[in-house]
């Protein structure tokens, strides 16, 4: 049975389906307006729920933002996804890091709204009161810890992955963030082609030939 709520019908759904619907609606609204301009009521209206019904799932506004990151943005593009892809450079016994980064760029190029969501939240999280402030503060450390266990194959002249690659990984992530911002503008660039230009600088020939 459906009930009317703010012009939309409220339909009973199972908890998993409803949670996914809430997270996707919130992600859409936040990517368009920013989290400060999106209220719980806005999201409730978007999915056809009552205000109190939505609170049952999210607890509060901070819980809503956390749900968006955990349930919507974080999915896909992982190293494990790359190793299962069968793409060149994805050998689990010796994956190539530049090849993984190209995989990640292609993944992000297919989800423009999620990249916009990430960029909006990244800026908003500069405020110490933002619920994701600490997440973004430790982001590069977390990324490094995620990448560290994999047996990346890099040129012997470069050194040992765990000893020398941390600054290079950080620069790659910072540059990717910047390129994505240019890509999101009204006069967009080609995200993948732009990344390849950076790759040629960060992983130059002939040193990285055979390792990218």
From TrEMBL:
Q: List, alphabetically, the PROSITE patterns matched.
A: HTH_TETR_2
Q: Does the keyword Transcription apply?
A: yes
Q: Which residue ranges carry the DNA-binding annotation? A: 39-58
Which InterPro entries does this chain map to?
Answer: Homeodomain-like_sf (IPR009057), HTH-type_TetR-like_transc_reg (IPR050109), HTH_TetR (IPR001647)
What sequence ranges are listed for the domain HTH tetR-type? 16-76
Single Gene Ontology MF annotation: DNA-binding transcription factor activity
The record's keywords, sorted A to Z, are: DNA-binding, Repressor, Transcription, Transcription regulation
Please give the name of this protein.
AcrR family transcriptional regulator
């Amino acid at each position: 049975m459906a009930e009317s709520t703010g012009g939309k019908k409220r339909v009973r759904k199972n908890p998993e389906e409803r949670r996914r619907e809430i997270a996707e609606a919130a992600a859409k609204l936040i990517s368009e307006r920013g989290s400060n301009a999106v209220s719980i009521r806005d999201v409730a209206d978007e999915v056809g729920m009552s205000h109190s019904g939505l609170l049952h799932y999210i607890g509060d506004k901070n819980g809503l933002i956390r749900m968006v990151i955990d349930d919507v943005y974080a999915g896909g593009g992982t190293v494990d996804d790359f190793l299962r892809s069968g793409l060149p450079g994805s050998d689990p016994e010796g994956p190539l890091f530049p090849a993984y980064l190209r995989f990640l760029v292609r993944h992000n190029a297919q989800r423009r709204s999620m990249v916009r969501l990430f960029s909006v939240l990244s800026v908003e999280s500069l405020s110490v009161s933002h619920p994701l402030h600490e997440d973004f503060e430790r982001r590069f450390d977390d990324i490094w810890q995620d990448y560290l266990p994999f047996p990346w194959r890099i040129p012997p002249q470069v050194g040992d992955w765990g000893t020398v690659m941390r600054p290079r990984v950080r620069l790659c992530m910072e540059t990717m963030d910047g390129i994505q911002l240019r890509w999101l503008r009204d006069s967009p660039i080609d995200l993948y082609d732009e990344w390849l230009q950076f790759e040629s600088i960060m992983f130059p020939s002939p040193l990285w030939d055979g390792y990218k």
